[in-house]
Amino acid sequence: MPELRNDPITGRWVIIATDRAKRPTDFIRQPVPVATSGICPFDYGNEHKTPPEILAYRNSGGRDEPGWRVRVVPNKFPVLGIEGELNRQGEGMYDKMNGIGAHEVIIECPFHEGSLANLSEDHIREVLWVYHDRLVDLKRTRDWSTAWCSRMSAPRPGRRSSTATAS
Predict the structure, then answer these.
(1) Are 104 and 54 in contact (CB under 8 A)?
(2) What is the count of structural domains for the chain?
(3) If DSSP states are collapsed to H, E and C, what string results for the chain?
(4) Could you read off the pLDDT of 123-138 as tens digits, one per residue?
(5) What is the CATH number of the domain that holds 153?
């Protein structure tokens, strides 16, 4: 199980997730080509290649179907586990607790080549509202004390969307 530890020097909580050390892609030795439209699971039309969506702002279509503008799905390789108790305790110089939380992927636009910098002001506003809506919902679901968001973008395959983690 992942673990949250308080860094005694900075006072910040860090995630120790040894389960994530090895992923299926870690064993591939050949170069991985840059994903193009139709290959990336986050691209429009590939909704069936991701876990079921948690939230989507859409023009048309139903859940897990095309028609979305911004979409949120659970991370296939979550850094935190959803089930369990925090079980906060001190061990030596560390305060630590179980790595309990939610880890979600926010797909900011339906086009693989899309970039936040190239989106319209209205679309950027929508992306920010998705972050807001997810963090508010996660806070309502459990008493999360921390929210962590990181952004990753193309051209690395599978790395064009944002990740929101709450614990």
Answers:
(1) yes
(2) 1
(3) CCEEEECCCCCCEEEECHHHCCCHHHHCCCCCCCCCCCCCCCCCCCHHHCCCCCEEEECCCCCCCCCEEEEEEECCCCCCECCCCCCCEEECCEEEEECECEEEEEECCCCCCCCHHHCCHHHHHHHHHHHHHHHHHHHHHCCCCCEEEEECCCCCCCCCCEEEEEC
(4) 999 999 999 999 899 8
(5) 3.30.428.10
Tokens at 142, concatenated: 């459990």
Q: Is the peptide bond before 31 cis (omega within 30 degrees of 0)?
A: no
Domain span holding position 71 = 3-166
At 90-118, the pLDDT tens digits run 888 888 888 888 888 999 998 877 778 88
Tokens encoding 42: 């986050």
Closest to 146 (Cα-Cα) out of 100, 92, 109:
100
Give the residues of the chain that fall short of pLDDT 70: 19-38, 143-147, 150-167
Predicted pLDDT of residue 93: 84
pTM of the model: 0.73
Amino acid (1-letter code) at residue 53 = E
